[in-house]
Amino acid sequence: MALSNRQARWLLLGPAGLWYAMLLVLPLAVVLVYSFGERGAAGGYQPAFTLAQYANLATRWTAFKNTLMLAPLGTVAALLIAYPLAYFLAVRVNPRWRTLLLVLVIVPFWTSILIRSYAWIFLLGGRGIPALLADLGLGDWRLINTPFAVLVGIVYGYMPLMFFPIYVSLEKLDRKLLEAASDLGSPPWRSFVQVTLPLSLPGVATGSMLVFILLMGEYLIPQMLGGGKVFFVGNALVDLFLQSRNWAFGSAMSVTLVAVMLVVVTLYMRFLKRIGAAREDVGLM
Amino acid sequence: MRIYALAVYAFLYLPIGIIALFSFSAGRSASQMQGFSTGWYAKALGNPFVVDALKTSASVALTSALLSCLFGTMAALALTGLKGRVRTIFDAMIYIAVMIPGIVIGIATLIALVTVFDAVNPWVQAATGWRLSLGFGSLVGAHVLFTMSLVIILVRARIEGMDRALIEASSDLGAGPVATFRQVTLPLLAPAVFAGFLLSFTFSFDDFIIAFFVAGPETTLPIYIFSSIRRGVTPEINAIGTMVIAVSLILLIVAEFTLRRGKPAA
Amino acid sequence: MKKTDFMRELRRYHKGSVSRRHFLGVTGLGAATAVMAGSLPMRAFAQGIGDRVSMATWPNYDDPDNLAAFQDKTGAAVQVNVFGSNEEMFAKLQAGGAGWDVVVATNYTISTYVGAKMIEPLDLSKLPNYDAAAFEARFAGPGTVDGKLYAIPKLWGTTGMAFDSTRAAQPLDSWKGFFDITRTEFSGRTIIHDYQLTAIGNALKYFGYSFNSVDPKELAEAEKLLIEVKPHLFAITSDYQPAMRNGDAWLTMCWTGDGKQLNRDMPEIHYALGKEGGEIWSDFYCIPTSAPNREGAYALLNFLLDPQVNAREALFHGYPVPDSRVEALMSDEMRNDPILHPAADLLSALEFGAAVTLTDPNRAEIMARFKAA
After folding, report:
1. pLDDT score for B29
2. Which residues of C touch B31 (CB under 8 A)?
3. What are the pLDDT digits (tens) for B46-102?
4. Closest CA in chain A for residue B17
5. Which residues in B lie closer than 8 A to residue A101 (C-beta atoms)?
6. Which residues of C touch B48 (CB under 8 A)?
7. From the CA of A117, how many Å to the nearest CA of chain C?
8. Residues B127 and B213 in one domain
9. Nearest Cβ partner for A31 among B108, B229, B245
10. B238 or C255: whose pLDDT is higher?
11. Contact B133/C38, CB-based, under 8 Å?
């Protein structure tokens, strides 16, 4: 059996193509169609052609605002915590310990994010850290069910996704460059700013984008650590499908969320290209 | 610097420590230490729902990872060197599949499948006696959409970084395209495919939000845990979490140990 | 294979005269099940009542010891799935086969479930422990639709408020007091249910409107109140016991049994009804039409309806059971408990939830807006 190159190519692409057609294009098309419909009498969906769902989006502004504020904030916080650690492990630490320390960064993430967030409910709740602070005479703190608690959960949950791309880019760094800089009398902070930082930017870019994308659709962390008070678009969506059973409005909100993300991510990638941090794999994504 | 790193590790392990600590509580509360007991471990292991959920999660994750690697690698190979409209369409699909939030995938898959099933079920039922419904199939379907795209990206990056000269050399030496593929291309791709497999498995095993919508009557481990948390957590959940970590750690140490022994002493 | 042959084989299999392997082989289902394993309700084919029964219910509702006893007796483990609102339960069942064998639903949802053919009439021959005469009509009534019995009451209760009496200058006794103190002394310490019926219903009571109102003007006022208090809330959740127990929250909307459980363990937490009124309700066991293990569902129901077992349930969940055989087993203390059996004048002000609130688009949307505010 001799296949032409062309036929072989189609055969190879077939399953993936089918998958995209049935489970990406079709569902998104259905969501788009539903977003112009109405809620059925007992919930669900009823065909119609109206823009009412999109007009109603304004009532969920807070959810969009929370998401658009806490997602970038969480990304930056995760970056600020992950970067020095990645730098330490890639450049400073004794190579004998490196593997062990790397593994120790991943291990906590082998247990479900649900269980880890539950532990944070205890830690941030009245009997956890606030009780400790009160005992130390540092005042009465309320942490659980605040944006701060959600931020802690976000940083905790997503730090490794930020950490690894940065670590990989720092690890590739040629140490001779740093030595050369130091031989030429450049102080450490200057060689960091002029050599290390620019070289690690692609890792920073990849990690930030990964974390940001995931945060935009986040549901669990605000649900568990926000107590229904720090609401993300994801929470509003779950509510619409699993409580008010308003599929039409939920669809309109999904479409909007995807549109917002496309815009933000496209802008971000343009910005990366301009500062020259885009790497091939970032471009591919 | 060192102190900073220590603080970060403390931050990472504080919740894990809490989980492990309370897993040994004798009381029913997962946030209070009442005596010491290993009873919750026995209870978790003897609970058919935990075992079932674990099996479901593992088989969904394994199926998703295998299909992703197979179809993803095939697609990545076909896309290499391809230009034109097909390439543009596939690039767009991959881009969208990776970027779209999981929650939207879950919702879109749910309403599309429910709509399609409602439409075709009368015929399907008349013909076969069965009805299509959400479950294992929809779980794997929705997971593979994302994980297959990951594999395509990883494998394609590898292909692009591959040394073309090797393949040319192989064919100059008289190897046919199939032999070249088996003996040269595949081994070169293996690390990327393997990484893709691990990523896919982990993603699928840990996914809550997509499964929350499309699992139908199936209960995966994250869904089971979510439901338990609502019910008022007992240390049983802590025991499960601690066991997962312990098992992973042991596997890792064993792997490390075997690798070391495999190497000649330096 | 013809359909009639298939049915004959199925019956033979059910009766146990052929083995599962024979059945699957003859019907050609072997290959199909091997392919689709997991996506089909395989459990229904297990012998007897199978090894598991799945139940959709509420937090702190079922005595784990009773469920363990059921497992010891029958070999079937009971999986408990817990929900925060009837709306959520309904949505999951509506979105197609949730895999539950027993659902515990509240009075006002039964007629909608029946109308949507989501629950089935009960076969009383499989429930020898059920005695219609023992049930109080007021609470059992909604279980019968069009003359057919669809649901049997598990327990009844009220929706009031639980508060830490050491924190409040004077005891709370009204919904006016509830929402007012939330905006002042208790700011940041109050929990409201993640449940449209009670969250909106009790806000309506603040203004003296009906708990079940679907009047747009009245609902608008309730929404305004809810959104106004939102910054002062500790949380919006139906699982409020943990926060009340560890002192994070001082006041919460509360169901009888939770109030009883809290008060039993921490006497400083008091339970009170709003004097303006509020909700009285009963929750029912039903069997969904999509139940994968119908026999298991009946076995579990029958087990739980045994007065001795049911009495142990009552001691655990702390709600009154509208079954006179169970009440007879309760101590005088339980029977006269002011939390379980509030004074007649307080009870008479309460309303049963109305079916319309489950499907009213306005109430659903207001609840969603309140949460997203």
Report:
1. 67
2. 242, 246
3. 877 788 888 999 999 999 999 999 999 999 988 887 888 888 999 999 988 988 999
4. A119
5. 5
6. 51-52, 77
7. 15
8. yes
9. B108
10. C255
11. no
> Of the candidates C205, C272, C192, which has an alpha carbon nearest to the alpha carbon of residue C233?
C192
Residues of C in contact with A144 (CB under 8 A): 248
Q: Does A147 touch chain C (CB under 8 A)?
A: no
Q: Are B171 and B113 contained in the same domain? A: yes
Rounded to whole angstroms, the Cα distance separating C276 from C173 reads 9
Q: What kind and span of H or E run contains C299?
A: helix C294-305
Q: Select from B31, B78, B112 the Cβ nearest to the Cβ of A30.
A: B112
Q: Do A88 and B245 touch (CB under 8 A)?
A: no
Judgement on whether residues B212 and B265 belong to the same structural domain of the protein: no
Q: Which domain holds residue B92?
A: 52-233
Interstrand relation of C251-255 and C148-149 (parallel, antiparallel or unpaired): unpaired
> Mind spelling out the 3-state secondary structure of C4-62?
HHHHHHHHHHHHCCCCHHHHHHHHCHHHHHHHHCCCCCHHHHCCCCCCEEEEEECCCCC
Q: Which of A45, A89, A111 sits opposite B241 (nearest CB)?
A: A111
pLDDT tens-digit map of C88-98: 888 888 876 56
Determine the Cα–Cα distance for residues C197 and C203; give it in Å rounded to an integer: 10
Query: In a mutagenesis test of the A interface, which of B103, B132, B204, B207 is the best target, namely the one with the most A β-carbons within 10 Å?
Result: B103
Q: Are residues B57 and B87 in the same domain?
A: yes
B147 and B88 within one domain:
yes
Number of inter-chain CB pairs under 8 A, B vs C: 68
Residue B155 within any structural domain of the chain: yes
Domain count, chain B: 2
Report the Cα A230 to chain-centroid distance in Å: 17
**Residues of A with CB below 8 A from B142's CB?**
23
Please name each of the domains of chain C with its CATH number.
3-40 (no CATH), 52-156+281-335 (3.40.190.10), 157-279+343-372 (3.40.190.10)
How do strand C152-164 and strand C278-286 relate by DSSP bridges? antiparallel
In a domain, B2, yes or no: yes
A209 to chain B: closest CA residue: B99
Q: Looking at the complex, does the CB of residue B49 fall below 8 Å from at least one CB of chain C?
A: yes
Q: What is the DSSP letter of A285?
A: -
Nearby residues of C146 by Cβ (< 8 Å), 6 or more positions away: C114
Nearest CA in chain A to B77: A12
Domain borders along chain A are 44-284
Q: How do residues A259-282 score in pLDDT, each as one tens digit?
A: 999 888 888 888 888 876 655 444
**What superfamily does domain A44-284 belong to in CATH?**
MetI-like (1.10.3720.10)
| Tokens read off for C128 | 């020898």
Report the sign of the C-alpha dihedral through residues C329, C332, C338, C339, in that order: negative
- Count of CB atoms within 10 A of residue A177's CB? 14
CA distances from C312 to C62, C63, C64, C128 (A): 10, 8, 10, 19
Rounded to an integer, what distance in angstroms lies between the CA atom of residue A54 and that of residue B4?
Answer: 47
Q: Give the domain CATH number at B62.
A: 1.10.3720.10
- Together in a domain, B121 and B248: no
Measure the CA–CA gap between B142 and A23, rounded to whole angstroms. Answer: 7
CB-CB neighbours of B210 under 10 Å: 26
Residue B187 lies in a domain: yes
Confidence of residue C256 (pLDDT cuts 50, 70, 90): very high
- C238 touches A at CB < 8 Å: no
Q: Do A242 and C116 touch (CB under 8 A)?
A: no
The closest of C237, A214, A113 to B221, measured between CA atoms, is A113
Output the DSSP codes for C106-159.
Answer: EGGGHHHHHHTT-B----GGG-TT--GGGB-HHHHGGGEETTEE--EEEEEEEE
A258 touches chain B (CB under 8 A): yes
- CB nearest A107 (choices: B79, B95, B248): B248
